[in-house]
Specification:
The protein is α+β, with helices and mostly antiparallel strands and 65 residues long. 35% of the residues lie in helices and 28% in strands. It is built from two helices and four strands. The protein is elongated.
Length: 65
């Protein structure tokens, strides 16, 4: 049973999440030969304030995103 996890910043809209879940499930089934019912997709949205990159908070490193 594949479990796919996406960690991303907060703010994805519902349609983007739906598209991600549908397309990654479809491709996982194609590649692994499993049924869609076997695939779980988890989307963890994390505040940029709680995410650091290159020694900086992402709120400071990427203020416009």
């Amino acid at each position: 049973m594949p479990i796919l996890r996406l960690e991303t910043w907060e703010g994805l809209d519902k349609e983007t999440k739906r598209d991600f879940v549908e397309s990654t499930t479809r491709e996982t089934c194609r590649i692994l030969g499993c049924p869609p019912e076997a695939v779980t997709v988890i989307i963890d949205e994390i505040s940029k304030e709680n995410w650091g990159a290159a020694g900086e908070l992402c709120t400071e490193r990427f203020p416009d995103k």
